[in-house]
Amino acid sequence: MLRILSLLLIILGMLECLVAQDFRATILGQVKDASGASVPQATVKATRKDTNSAKETVSNENGFYALVGLDPGLYDITVTASGFATLQRKDITLQVADKLDIAIKLEVGSVTQEVIITAEQEVIQTATASRGLVFDPIKMQEIPLNGRQAYMLMRLSPGVMFTQRTFGSTGFSGTRGWDVNGSFTMNGGRTGSNQFLLNGAPISTNGTFNMSPNVEAVQEMKVMVNTYDSQYGRSGGGHVSTTLKSGTNKWNGTMFNFWRNRVLDANTRQNNALGVARGFRNQHQFGGTLGGALRKDKDFVFFSFEGWREVVPFPSNVSVPPSEIRNGDFSRFVPTGAAGPINVFDPMTSVPCGGAVTCNAGGVYARQQFPGNVIPQSRINPIGRAILGFYPNPNFQQNSLVNNFTRPDNLGRYRYEQPMARYDKILSSNDRLYFLFTFQDGSEFRNGNGFDSPAQTGNMPGTVRRDMNYVVSYDKTLSATRIFHVQASYNRFKQNFPDVSDPTFTIDKLGMRPLPRVDSFPTTLAPRMNVGGFAAIFGNQFI
Questions:
Q1: What is the H or E stretch that residue 27 is in?
Q2: Domain that holds residue 61
Q3: Residues 277 and 169 in one domain
Q4: pLDDT tens per residue, range 308-324
Q5: What is the pTM assigned to this prediction?
């Protein structure tokens, strides 16, 4: 008995959480006759045209009706009542999370008589104060998208701002289907406070979407910046509700392969200065969709797959120590823009200012310059010398202290696969069930400084980003005014981006003594080295 009660509590908890994330539409309104009097007990039926699935209800004593839980799509509405001609409203488009107020006016006549209305529906929604912009399949597939990343369309919505400004090898890539991103503000909300939904199930963590579905598989996406409706919560910003396509009575499929190379790419300033051609680029985004009916009007399936393979140039331009000064000899190196060499003083000769010791204004200590402006070899730490040995020599503006190393042939590599499947089952005119599965797995290689291993930093081999979603939903119409809806979803998101290019490069390779090992970081990898004014080397995030 205790187990049964626990199970009921869990189901009720899911009901409370998941009803607030419904992506489906609602039609409501009032049925009246020609004189404006309400018509009770009128049967209102909505039929989805591509699957012939239907829902119906009966108007109450005041003529009001409501049809809830309608999947986005194209519908015909049929209204019948005793003593009135049958009314048909054709081609009513329902979008994601729509709530349409459709008034019905019946004419006196026989039920066998029909009044057919085919006209453009009202575009002003009066049934809800929540507002948002809907992107249908035409917009999703025809508007130019870098990487065909569906959520980049959010930037076209009023009240939405995309705040990311850094791209390339040292920042986010940000706009591929592989990427996750939360750099959106909606109606003044903070970044990281938005929620992303897929068929009503949350797919975001801290305001960042965990996966971006194949645009060929998206039925609609609605960007809601004002969600006054109480069903929307768990967010301090806006909501983005995406619905995947389902199978229909007709089998339909698509195939695609988007290819990009370097032909229309511009070269970088560093490459032009070195006389180097544009870096190699080869990008393929490929896949397809297939959907149809296993049994007409009963069982529908929809499948989608998208893959990505990309080799992209990431020419790096960073600062490295000049070769002339690595052995301690500063006597002949004159930096670009300087009048003479950098004077190097011996810290072991420091004496306090005052008395016979004169110092520059504000000085505290005075030091003596190394003889000949050369640091003796005995004074150079062997660990420091070993670290400097892993820096490449300058190959660009060699007398400069900044941006003096460039790697024009530095390449990044990306891949991912994204299969998705949906199954819809019409159990009866009052019972519906659907199951949705999505999966995405990808990896990348991005050398941030352009150095060779083990001095590389960035996203090294072993990166992984994986997302899985399972959604099960069941609807049962209990009466003309009541519906039972239960939905359960499971989302697992894994992400690991090690920055270690050589897992065997340990601290002893630098001559360092063993460091204390702690449970939170049980490794002897060489730590990251940050040399002031120059690029960091080595990675230390491996586990």
A1: strand 25-33
A2: 21-117
A3: yes
A4: 999 988 888 899 999 98
A5: 0.80
Cross-strand partners of 458: 447
CA–CA distance, 456 with 62 (Å, rounded to integer): 73
Beta strand extents in 396-533 (DSSP E only): 405-407, 411-428, 431-447, 458-459, 464-477, 483-496
Within a domain: 186: yes
289: which strand partners? Answer: 254, 304
| 491 in the same domain as 466 | yes
Q: Are residues 180 and 309 in the same domain?
A: yes
Res 472 pLDDT > 90: yes
- Map tokens 């660009």 to a residue: 396
Sign of torsion over alpha carbons 145, 148, 153, 154: negative
DSSP 361: T
H or E element that contains 133 = strand 131-135
Q: Any idea of the CA torsion for 518, 523, 524, 530, to the nearest 10 degrees? A: -90
* CATH code (residue 89): 2.60.40.1120
Counted domains in the chain: 2
Residue whose tokens read 């003096």: 404
Residue 204 covered by a domain: yes
Q: Is residue 305 part of a domain?
A: yes
DSSP 86-100: EEEEEEEEE-TT-EE
Where is average pLDDT lowest: 15-29, 47-61, 214-228?
Answer: 15-29
Q: Using alpha carbons, select from 266, 531, 491 the residue that is nearest to residue 389.
A: 531
Inside any domain, residue 528: no
Beta pairing, strands 299-313 & 160-162: unpaired
Residue pair 143/151 in contact by the 8 Å Cβ criterion: no
CA distance 284 to 262: 13
Domain shared by 145 and 57, yes or no: no
Do 273 and 422 fall within a single domain?
yes
